[in-house]
UniProtKB/TrEMBL annotation:
Membrane topology: Multi-pass membrane protein
Pfam families: ORMDL
Protein name in UniProt: ORM1-like protein
Chief localisation class: membrane
Localization per Swiss-Prot or TrEMBL: Membrane
Signal peptide: none
Transmembrane regions listed in the UniProt entry: 23-49, 101-119, 125-144
GO biological process, one term: regulation of ceramide biosynthetic process
GO CC terms of this entry: endoplasmic reticulum membrane
Keyword terms: Membrane, Transmembrane, Transmembrane helix
Membership in a protein family: Belongs to the ORM family.
């Protein structure tokens, strides 16, 4: 018997993103990060947007595609131990509203960054590589439960 578990889901790690207001909270955290970066002296608007894009892509990569298991004790008998957060989200179903949202947000940030950097080639290249390698490719259904070169297998 599990004392203190008020849910019937064996792994609540994949359903919390369905909570009310979580999408708005996520976007608010992105803007807070941008305003913190923008408040640093001697950082231009272009560099602030590039740093916001990079910070977002790196943090979400580690949060969604690197960390495995659950931050609490799930009741799934260790099934989630080898799955990343992205693989657990929405019980592994592809193309749900949550997964589409988490795919579109980095693209929108990239487009905003491209606009505010005035289409500078260096900023564009850095942000495009980050977008593709950290935010889009790991979310593809072809990479579901795939560990490239065995990295992060265990």
């Amino acid at each position: 018997m599990q004392v203190g578990t008020a849910h019937s889901d064996p792994n609540p790690n994949h359903v919390y993103f369905n909570s009310r207001g979580i999408w708005a909270t996520y976007v608010i955290f992105i803007f807070i990060t941008h305003f913190i970066v923008l408040s640093i002296p001697f950082i231009s608007m272009a560099l602030a947007w590039t740093l916001t894009c990079q910070i977002h892509n790196v943090i979400t990569y580690f949060w969604l595609h690197w960390e495995k298991g659950a931050p609490f004790e799930p009741l799934d008998q260790g099934e989630s131990r080898t799955l990343t957060h992205w693989e657990q989200l929405d019980d592994g179903v592809q193309f749900t509203a949550n997964k589409k949202f988490l795919l579109v947000v980095p693209i929108v940030i990239f487009l905003l960054t491209t606009f505010y950097t005035r289409y500078d080639q260096i900023h564009f290249l850095v942000n495009a590589l980050s977008l593709v390698l950290l935010a889009i490719v790991p979310k593809l259904p072809q990479l579901y439960r795939v560990r490239i070169f065995g990295i992060n297998k265990w």
